[in-house]
Design goal:
By secondary structure, the chain is of the alpha+beta class. The chain is built from 17 helices and 40 strands. α2 links the parallel β2 (about 25-30) and β3. α5 crosses α6 and α12 runs antiparallel to α13. It starts with a strand and ends with a strand.
Length: about 675
């Protein structure tokens, strides 16, 4: 076994590797860029080596710097985590030459499977079901259009060296190919240094199901069952679970056998994932690709099998055989994982950057039959950078049944507090409550099908509305009661000021009366009485307890005249006033929104890659006018109405802030 390993990665996966290494008694060293100088992973590792500026191309992707760091720290092996150099055969080759162990598969397996085009050829030779498509070099846009029309729309345009949801576009027509092909090629070049593209048929009503495999250096290969990864935005997973609600035992066995056959064909000797697209109608399935690395969503497989995949990777790299056979592995319970991202779900999941003014995660551990796990690389006060993937944390719940795991996940999301940046928790909470997801009836088009106009939150149920009104009134009561104990804050107000309120929710006035006691309060809302038990006190950002006997947690933040409250995907502004103040509120005229239809703004902070229009040019609604890159993704900025370009305020190479005006229409 190794004495010390170097971690050639950052963020939550680096923290994850440190934790397993500590448990095994292995010392850790880590590399870090300028942006990660004060990160949690750097603090946790035994040693840290600075490797350069924040952009990955100047730090985490520079092989010479990683090898030098291993030499400086005396590390015998390197774990690449996921992303960056984890699937670079050249990196594995270099480590072999340097006599440093690569904690991952052999270079031959990486080459055979890491290239999406070559992997499809290998899969077909191994008897694995493959999606119809074009396997070969594509010369340009015209060639891409020709291939797409021969296959038949819709098609998927994918980077050969891609991964992590990057370098992918679905094209439903010729225009989509003409716009999408150059964007995918540019993303592929920027993210992977390889601009080769392939095109394949996009399977309608698809489910994204992947098989976790594990091999050793002695010819043993097993699978650790499947993961369902169909809830995606921009072709990147946001919710994963194991096992899949789609598969029966026969299909599970067939997919597992094909995955293992492919792994054996390329002499696979580490953790890897064979990805399939499956039909929700008949459970037919086709090979998509193999990821020759640890996957982001590996914890759900660990939770249902009881194995630590990072530990297995380390043991296999050290030459140990697997200590279990396929017959020893059984599915235990159900696991759900939510990826918590620094992004705004109300603005098409665009990235958000900034400082975490608040970061309060639910407590990890086991409570009854439920286990909760939170994998993160950040702490309160950390900066979310524009240079890397916007993932903040992975929240995992495990329970005996799928519904119990979903309910535990929903409750945990309610107790996950983030402030200072936008986050996608409202969206995740809404999915946990949505009936089709709870039934297991969904496809990779889930977001488009259920939120066709984009995610705008969900309306509260009648019971949720009462809970939110009660929470807002109690919070205001706490503040008022506290004010009476501070000299000069209350000028002889009557006791009734602490009890009677009007809560204004979506312009509707609700007469509310609150009787506080040591265990919570009795609340009257529009004449009907409710009981809320809570230990929350003034200033609490999460009010937890029981409402009418049912557990709840509501996130609450002070807003003008009241509070912004979040619960299970519902976000509302509740204004709280005295009865007299509420009467005055009715007389305030509504603000007229300014007309911004002539302005084309950047929806996120980033780098302008190209500006594709000039003054005087006619544009149509939906036409691409510029490309902005943020957090390793290229985003096409489109005109929202027909018009003529009046002024262009930015040029390629410029940095833009969120909501910065880029182009004006006349």
């Amino acid at each position: 076994m190794f004495d010390k390993i170097l971690i050639a990665n950052r963020g939550e996966v680096a923290v994850r590797i440190v934790r397993t290494a500590r448990r095994l008694g292995i010392k850790t060293a880590i590399v870090y860029s300028e942006a990660d100088r004060d990160s949690l992973a750097v603090d946790m590792a035994d040693e840290a080596v600075f490797i350069g500026p924040s952009p990955a191309a100047q730090s985490y992707l520079v092989i010479d710097k990683i090898v030098d760091a291993a030499r400086q720290t005396g590390s015998q092996a390197i774990h690449p985590g996921f992303g960056f150099l984890s699937e670079k055969a050249e990196f594995a080759d270099r480590l072999l030459a340097e006599k440093i162990t690569f904690i991952g598969p052999n270079p031959h397996a990486i080459r055979a499977m890491g290239d999406k085009i070559e992997s499809k050829k290998a899969a077909a030779a191994a008897g694995v079901s493959c999606v119809p498509g074009f396997i070969g070099e594509i010369s340009g846009v015209d060639h891409a259009v020709q291939i797409s029309e021969e296959i038949g729309y819709p098609v998927m345009i994918k980077a050969s060296a891609g991964g992590g949801g990057k370098g992918i576009r679905v094209a439903f027509n010729r225009k989509d190919v003409e716009e999408g092909f150059p964007a995918v090629r540019a993303e592929a070049k920027g993210a992977f240094g390889d601009d080769r593209i392939f095109i394949e048929k996009f399977v309608t009503a698809p489910r994204h199901i992947e098989i976790q495999v594990m091999g050793d250096k002695h010819g043993n290969v097993v699978h650790l069952f499947e993961r369902e990864c169909s809830i995606q935005r921009r072709n990147q997973k946001v919710i994963e679970e194991a096992p899949s609600p789609l598969l029966d035992e026969k299909t599970r066995m067939a997919m597992g056998e094909q995955a293992c056959a492919l792994a054996r064909a390329v002499q696979y000797d580490s953790a890897g994932t064979v990805e399939f697209v499956a039909s929700g109608a008949d459970k037919s399935f086709y090979f998509l690709e193999m990821n020759t690395r640890l996957q982001v969503e590996h914890p759900v497989s660990e939770m249902i099998t009881g194995l630590d995949l990072v530990e297995q990777m380390i043991r296999v790299a050290a030459g140990e055989p697997l200590k279990f056979k396929q017959k020893d592995l059984k599915i235990k319970g159900w696991a759900i994982e939510s990826r918590i991202y620094a992004e705004d779900p109300y603005r098409n999941f665009l990235p958000s950057i900034g400082r975490l003014r608040a970061y309060q995660a639910p407590a990890e551990g086991k409570t009854g039959d439920v286990t909760l796990r939170n994998e993160t690389g950040v702490r309160e006060g950390d900066e979310i950078s524009m240079f890397y993937d916007p993932m903040i944390a992975k929240l995992i719940t495990h329970a005996p049944t799928r519904i119990a795991a979903i309910d535990a996940q929903a409750a945990a999301l309610d107790n996950f507090l983030i402030d200072g940046i936008a986050d996608n928790i409202p969206f995740l909470g809404a999915v946990m409550e949505e009936k089709d997801f709870r039934k297991g009836d969904f496809t990779t088009a889930y977001i488009k099908d259920h939120f066709p106009e984009g995610f705008q939150g969900v309306p509260p149920t009648a019971q949720q509305e009462k809970l939110l009104i009660a929470a807002a009134a109690i919070a205001r009561c706490f503040t008022a009661r506290r004010a009476r104990t501070i000299s000069g804050q209350v000028n002889g107000a009557a006791e009734g000021w602490q009890k009677d309120w009007v809560v204004i929710l979506d312009k509707v006035h609700h007469d509310t009366s609150v009787d506080l006691d040591d265990a919570g309060a009795n609340v009257s809302i529009d004449g009907k009485k409710y009981r809320i038990d809570t230990a929350a006190r003034p200033g609490a950002r999460i009010i937890s307890g029981a409402f009418e006997g049912k557990p709840f947690s509501v996130k609450i933040k002070t807003a003008p005249g009241g509070y912004t409250l979040r619960h299970r995907g519902v976000t509302v502004l509740a204004q709280v006033a005295t009865p007299r103040g509420a009467e005055l509120h009715k007389k305030i005229p509504e603000k007229v929104k300014a007309d911004t239809s002539k302005l084309i703004v950047s929806p996120m902070p980033g780098l302008v890659i190209s500006v594709d229009v000039k003054p005087g040019q006619d544009v149509k609604s939906g036409e691409g006018v510029a490309v902005v890159e943020a957090m390793k993704m290229q985003n096409i900025i489109r005109a929202e109405r027909d018009g003529v370009i009046a002024t262009v305020h930015v040029a390629a190479g410029a940095s833009v802030a969120a909501d910065e005006v880029m182009i004006e229409l006349s």
